[in-house]
Design brief:
It contains five helices and nine strands; from the N terminus they run H-E-E-E-E-H-E-E-H-E-E-H-E-H. The protein is α+β, with helices and mostly antiparallel strands. Strands 1, 2, 5, 6, 7, 8 and 9 form a seven-stranded mixed β-sheet that branches. A two-stranded antiparallel sheet has the order 3-4.
């Protein structure tokens, strides 16, 4: 019983800490602004500059230093609400992450906080035929964080739900059988070379 409670408490602590981290934006991250009822060209992606400033149409500059995403979002909504009457506005965080391993186009990508895990993999061109989807890893500050990818995909969890944070690395490993197959091919090739040499001699 005590062990079960300890495991539950630890899991909740990890989840809450991940959710908290997901609200942080770093330099180079951004926001995605969407207006449904405004003709002005405002909808788009905007990025935090090296000086910590976020330049937005018609409302000017937002200082993001020492502010989490909720505070930044609140400032944006307040300024646009002052400019337009009850605008239908949504503001989402954009995290800069690195997707590596068995994907077709590994590299850095901007991922919104509402993006599904399958969409994140799709940004990188999807996984290869040798991808080990059951052992995908999330690396943060050189530490590995376990992801229950199967559950995340089945539940359609968003980036915020599974605690994605700016600067995270998603690593898709190779399946063990793919490595074993490659090793078998090498052994077979060596055996063939040895056989040819034996025939010649």
């Amino acid at each position: 019983m005590k062990n079960s409670l300890l495991i539950l408490f630890t899991t909740l602590s990890i989840f809450l800490s991940l959710s908290l981290y997901a609200q942080e934006l770093n330099l180079g991250d951004g926001v995605r602004i969407s207006f449904l009822d405004i003709d002005d060209v405002i909808t788009g992606d905007y990025y935090i500059q090296p000086n910590g400033l976020l330049h937005l149409p018609f409302i000017g500059v937002i200082k993001t230093s020492n502010l989490d995403f909720k505070e930044i979002k609140s400032k944006i909504e307040f300024r646009y609400d002052s400019l337009y009457k009850n605008p239908q506005l949504t503001v989402n965080a954009l995290f800069r992450i690195n997707v590596l391993g068995e994907v077709r186009n590994p590299g850095f990508y901007y991922v919104s906080d509402y993006e599904k895990f399958t969409a994140i993999l799709a940004f990188a061109g999807g996984t290869t035929g040798t991808a080990d989807l059951e052992n995908i890893k999330l690396i943060r500050n050189f530490e590995e964080i376990h992801l229950d990818v199967e559950t995340i995909i089945l539940e359609g969890s968003s980036a915020t739900d599974f605690g994605l944070q700016s600067g995270d690395q998603i690593i898709v490993p190779r399946t063990w059988w793919a490595d074993a197959r490659g090793f078998t091919i090498i052994i077979s090739a060596l055996a063939l070379i040895v056989t040819i040499i034996a025939i010649i001699l």
